[in-house]
Amino acid sequence: MSEKTPPTFQSITQTLLQFWADRGCVIWQPYHTEVGAGTMNPATFLRVLGPEPWKAAYLEPSKRPKDGRYGENPNRVQQFNQYQVVLKPSPENVLPIYIESLTALGIDPSKHDIRLVEDDWESPTLGASGLGWEVWLDGMEITQFTYFQLAGGLELDPITAEITYGLERICMYLQQVDDIMKIEWGGGITWGELNRQAEREFSIFHFEKADVSFYFEIFERFQREAIRMLEAGLVMPAYDYVIKCSHMFNILDARGAISVSERTSYIARIRDVARQTAEAYLGERQRLGFPLLKRRPGGRRERR
Amino acid sequence: MKKDFLLEIGCENLPSGYLDGALEQLEILVKEGLDSERVKYDSISVMGTPNRLVVRIEGLSRKQEAAEERIVGPPVSVAVTPEGTYTEAAFGFAKSQGVSPSRLSRVMTERGEYLAVVKRIRGRSTTSILKEKVPQWIISVKFPKLMSWDSSGFRFARPVRWMLSFFGENVIKLTLGNLVSSASTRLSPYFESSVAVNGIAHYFSIMKKHRIILSQQQRRTVVRDMAREAAQTCGGTLVEDDELVNVVANLLESPVMLTGAFDRDFLKLPREVIVTALKSHQRYFSVSGKKGKLLPSFIAFADGARRNTKEIVKGYERVLQARLADAVFYYQEDTSKPLEEMAKKLKGVVWLEGLGNLAQKTERIEELALWLRSMWSISAERLEENIRRAARLTKADLASEMVKDGKEFTLLQGYIGREYARAGGESEEVAESIFEHYLPRFSGDRLPERVTGILLALADRLDTITGCFIMGLEPSGSQDPYALRRQALGLLRILIERKIPVSLPETTRRSVELFKAEGLMSEETNLEELITRIQDFFKQRMNVMLRGEGNDYDLVMSVLSAPWEVPITVREMTAALQRMRDRGELTPFVLSMKRIANILPQQMKEGFTRGIGSRSLKGLANENVQGLNFSIELFREDAEMDLYLRAAEASRKLLDLEKSKELDRCFEVLSELVPAVNRYFDDVLVNCEDRELRDNRLSFLRNLYQSFNLFCDFFKIAGE
């Protein structure tokens, strides 16, 4: 890629998609309900559990109500995009492959300061944690690189490597713009033109307008639904409601409706159903005989 | 017979904070391991970078030293007949050890005489020992957190991706997890390509050629020197920061220095805000110009030479710009309204679960600080007004945008409060005291200087300790989540070094009452028991502190076991005892004090309190013997009257010393009694036949015991 014509947002996404498809990943899709990060997509949170191998790459629009700034801050927005890659088991050369993916994006490691900075990741709501780094490109954080150790309170074996690219950050760097709104998305349209309205409106919604009692109520109902589905042995629907609870919590939190002391108990409630869901998922996969274990070394499924 | 050994453990970037600890442990593990395996060597050096831990052993013996092992068998009484011939037991033992009976010998043990056999163990080859032990040493290195990355079960701080190992010219194949060591290294964990190494010298020349500095000390020196030089080039001096030097040196293996700049406009931010923005997240050094003002420059380090440093610096600058812009935003928001407004927001900030909000804490700090002022009986211009004003503002910055976002500027609590107070036109005493009330922040930190700052620092610490004890959050074992030990030590240091003679139990009582008045304690809480627990906690801290100052353990315990109240007095009294011991004067003194106590029946010594001691001391001083339960009329020997009069005189002196806060001289006064005490015990038969006389003597001695026990528990003093 020539340095004179920097890549657009969509071409960067395309490059990553191709790069990881070439390395045997399933190209998965964003989840259809709000998530705070690609980790919450069942393609990560549930697939990291148990012995089945799994390689997937997908874009994930990530929603964080608290980070909204009415579309007026050059660095902070309530919805941004992650490119999520999960590799299970984590390959011996996962770090070199990641560096290669940067080269594919036009970031030449011989010309830049690429630094791994210790960052132990933890999600209290998902009962998940991992060890790894933030990756800094000339001082700017562009990726979270994590070896997953725990999900839903369960110890993981094999270990999954999770690579989460911050697409906007990478784009801002490659396009040399200092305002997220100025990112060139593609087709002659900028990030701001696409999203500024949503940023402003969602910020008003999250901070000022969201109906607190309505959200408290549906939090309760979603949580009950998750538990009810678990009791019915329906893991995937149950997990949907876990994610929804988490998002309802994020809205209430942004709205300032949750006091410091309540916070811990809400997080614990979500963690609790997340843990039960993780256990139920593992049980169900076991019952199914861990189908993804039965694969030919070449990567193709066996045919009859 | 000797060869050199080299081990390289190749890691994906180890956290900078883990490196020194890992290298220290590795060195000890290798040393102790080789010693316990009886393998000799000339020297061991352990060094490393985030990407590699390296062990080099020079002059390592090729074989383990031979050794003799003695195996003890049956006792002689069973194995040898009275005639001196071996029994079946002896033959059986020899057979089981595979030796002829002629090699049996006799040894004396604690349990008697036994038969034994001495076997010579031939030395194994060092290679086989290394293969067995090196992997064990590596996995024995402890880290704050461990992780897995494959299914081998090998856990380490970060994935280990390669191992290189040489013994002399030969590669040793060491196995660890899924890895086998080889003769190749990698220049970076970022790339799979490896570099073939043909020997130990070659390894070090490869590292040198690629400017990888293996020694962490050397990297520190290089980083510091380069940063200083760069600061001069920028026209200023480096803002020295050892902590930052250590962090940076352990973040990279081939330091390359870069300098950048930021907008001059940002310089209107408080200095520490800029320094912190540069340091905490980005790990950049600041540059100071003339008169201590910062220059709009920074010094950063990249790992390894890169081709377009200009662009890298541009990247650094852009990130820094964003951080400083955040700080400016916070600063403008915060200073747009008075600090008092912020203090009001503390009502909505929980301090500790169940202990109300931060506004309530500042109210208690205010009350306690005022109370301490009156106990200290210090006066200064407008002191009360300053205390009230500063106390209310102590925690205001916790509600500021700058501090509350929970990121790097949170470290600046107190400093931000001071800067905002100054910007808002508060007096220097108030502004400075807001900062000082957090001092000391760590061991060896400076102490508050201003009277207001001192009082607030004391009040805040005691309030935190009391609150945590009320909630049952006191430290136990290695658990001390609220750093109460550090807080207690800080409080004691201030009381002692600033020479503040206030009673700790009384101050604690006042603090407890303040919580009670706010209804923050359950009705069932036993106040006395709570105060005692807190006092015991201070006692432990005093113990650690006084021993740390070089006082003997038993002397510290003897003073702390008395019902002490004022930390500075305890310290002076301990030092006084220590001086007496160092001059050899302690033994006769303590012996005579112990004689008094020894003769008293146990029940007379039980339940000793400060009140009982004071009553005896005052009674003796006033010669008010009726209240003390003995009678002068019943004295029969001259020695009795003599000791009584001298003790009364001593008691008066002791009371004076207490008043003039010179209790460190109490042992001088007490030791003047030694001849009279000794004469008393030489001349007087305390436990005589006459019951009335006996009771009177015991009662008199009991009062002496109770008076002297106020200052020191002589029984805790060892040896004498």
Could you please describe the fold and organization of this structure?
The complex is a heterodimer of chains A (304) and B (720). In chain A, the strands form 2 sheets. In chain A, strands 1, 2, 3, 4, 5, 6, 7, 8 and 9 form a 9-stranded mixed sheet that branches. Chain A has helices at residues 9-22, 42-45, 94-104, 167-175, 191-209, 212-231, 235-254, 260-287, and strands at 26-27, 54-63, 79-88, 114-118, 121-123, 128-137, 140-151, 154-155, 161-166, 184-186, 189-190. Helix content of chain A is 41%, strand content 21%. Chain A contains 8 helices and 11 strands. Chain A has 2 domains: 9-195, BirA Bifunctional Protein, domain 2; 210-291, Methane Monooxygenase Hydroxylase, Chain G, domain 1. By secondary structure, chain A is an alpha+beta fold. In chain A, helix 6 packs antiparallel against helix 7 (235-254), helix 6 (212-231) packs parallel to helix 8 and helix 7 (235-254) runs antiparallel to helix 8. The longest helix of chain A has 28 residues, at 260-287. The N and C termini of chain A lie far apart (44 Å). Chain B is α+β, with helices and mostly antiparallel strands and 720 residues long. Chain B folds into 5 domains: 2-64 and 125-209, 2-Layer Sandwich (Alpha-Beta Plaits), CATH 3.30.70; 67-121, no CATH class; 216-335, no CATH class; 340-548, Orthogonal Bundle (Hypothetical protein af1432), CATH 1.10.3210; 559-716, no CATH class. Chain B contains 28 helices and 16 strands. In chain B, the strands form 5 sheets. Chain B has a 5-stranded antiparallel sheet, covered by helices on one side. Chain B has a 4-stranded antiparallel sheet with strand order 13-15-16-14, sandwiched between helices. Chain B has a 3-stranded antiparallel sheet with strand order 4-6-5. In chain B, strand 15 and strand 16 form a beta hairpin. In chain B, helix 24 packs across helix 25. Chain B starts with a strand and ends in a 12-residue tail after the last helix. In chain B, 41% of the residues are buried. Classes of the chains: A alpha+beta (304), B alpha+beta (720).
